[in-house]
Amino acid sequence: MPGRGPAPKDASKRARRNKDAVELRVLQIQPTEQPKLPTFYVDVNLGKDEDGAPVIVKRRFTWPATTKSWWEMLARHPLAVEFTEMDWAYLAETAMIHAQFWKGDVKLAGELRLREANYGFTPEDRARLRMQFALATTAEVEYAERVDRAVSSRDRMRGITRKDSA
């Protein structure tokens, strides 16, 4: 019969079996709350004194407004409820790179992009990580609740009206 194609190859002779090389391990995690951005001090070079020696003082690091709002946005990330202490430490380091980028060090753009990609920040990153966010509208939720309560098809279709075309 046309369109069926050749018979499948014997499974023992196939080159690819599409099995996982390493078995999946499921680990228990201890999610933690998002910490505040760390306070730390940086060395600031004020120039040279009369002897020609550099004058270096410690100043408190000031987080840029864009990095502060980026950090607040992370609290609303759908996976934030699963972030562990290690995740937050990694993201705090990423915040430092983010801050330096927004202060003008554009050489850090690639590293920032790679670090953000690990957490699915863009649609492309989420597709690569096989993540999909579920969005349910109020109408969908109400319909699902109505279907759960429905006894007959008339109950399920109640509220749906026919719109005649003129």
Tell me what the structure shows.
The protein has a domain at 63-151. Strands 1-2 form a two-stranded antiparallel ribbon. Strand 1 and strand 2 form a beta hairpin. It contains 6 helices and 2 strands. Helix 2 runs antiparallel to helix 3. It has helices at residues 65-75, 85-102, 109-117, 123-128, 138-149, 153-157; strands at 41-48, 54-60. It has 166 residues and is mostly helical. It is 37% helix and 9% strand.
Question: Main traits of this protein?
Answer:
166 residues, mainly alpha, two-stranded antiparallel ribbon, 6 helices
Itemize the secondary structure elements and their pairings.
Blueprint: E1 41-48, E2 54-60, H1 65-75, H2 85-102, H3 109-117, H4 123-128, H5 138-149, H6 153-157
Antiparallel strand pairs: 1-2
Report, as a whole number of angstroms, the end-to-end distance: 49 Å
- Broad shape: extended
Looking at the chains present, what oligomeric state does this protein adopt?
single chain
Instruction: Please report the number of helical segments.
Output: 6
- How many strand elements? 2
Order of helices and strands: EEHHHHHH
What is the alpha-carbon Rg in Å?
Answer: 28 Å
Low-confidence stretches: none
Largest beta-sheet details: 2 strands, antiparallel
**Averaging pLDDT over every residue, what do you get?**
84
Strand content: 5-15%
Helix fraction, binned, reads 25-40%
> Which structural class fits the helix and strand makeup?
mainly alpha
What is the spatial order of strands in the main beta sheet?
A: 1-2
